[in-house]
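To the structural biology subgroup,

Please find below the input and predicted structure for Deazaflavin-dependent oxidoreductase (Nitroreductase family), which we are adding to the shared reference set this quarter. The sequence is reproduced verbatim from the submission form. If anyone notices a discrepancy with their own records, reply to this email rather than editing the shared folder directly, so we keep one authoritative version.
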Amino acid sequence: MSVSAAPNTTSWRLARATAPAVRVLAGRRFFPLWAVVQHRGRVSGRELSVPVAVTVTPEVFVINLPWGARTNWVRNVQAAGSCTLRWKGRPHPADQPRIIDATAARPYYSRPVWAIARTLFPADAWLVLRRI
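Predicted structure (tokenized):
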């Protein structure tokens, strides 16, 4: 499994164009497709946060990683072994981070959501976090 996918030009432009709105809306009560991962920098020790697209089940959070599994925030979460997701207006602690590929991620998505996610945010890695 390759975990260092570079975003294509379309997804990069979409991400840049929507970033201001996503930063404002992510984690809010009425925007369940977006969450904010709150984590601690493994080098700086600072509290950090990043907005993410999330799919949720009663057991796990599944986060699409269009820029790959080697981004700093993913490495921070893996190093700490846990993080908090602000989702639907509330904090949700999560642990046991693991990286999965598209085959393992597919069952977490409905057919239309999978098609949209694969078109707008193509990725070859997903982060799964157990809900505590």
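Summary notes: The longest helix spans residues 9-25. The beta strands are 34-40, 47-56, 60-64, 82-87, 90-100, 126-131.

Regards,
Lab coordination
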